Amino acid sequence: MGSGGSGLVKFLIVLSLHAGALHSSAAGAGTPHDSWLGADKVKHFFLSAFIESVAYGGLRLARADRATALPVAAGLTMTLGVAKEVRDRSTEGLFSLGDLTWDAAGTGAAAVMLYHTSR
Known about the structure:
It is built from four helices and no strands. It has helices at residues 3-26, 39-61, 66-92, 97-115.
């Protein structure tokens, strides 16, 4: 993937560490249970892949080069995923590490697909 890809990997690692810290600090006796599998997780995967693809396409349309567009689109996608979990934490009492994991998986799958598309 080049230097942009390694930056993306570092970003996703740091993001998952921060998400884990938020998740563990949010866990408590009254915290709702979050499953790692289910229809909601499939939605997180595909919506993240879709958001990254649209963001990447928009950036390329705006004449951003591939090395810039891919990590920016991935960062935007994961930022939206974290923002949704922060909102869910305040409204539903649950910051879901599972949701973020599936967001990252969808983002990563889209990044691989987009990286291997024709120029």
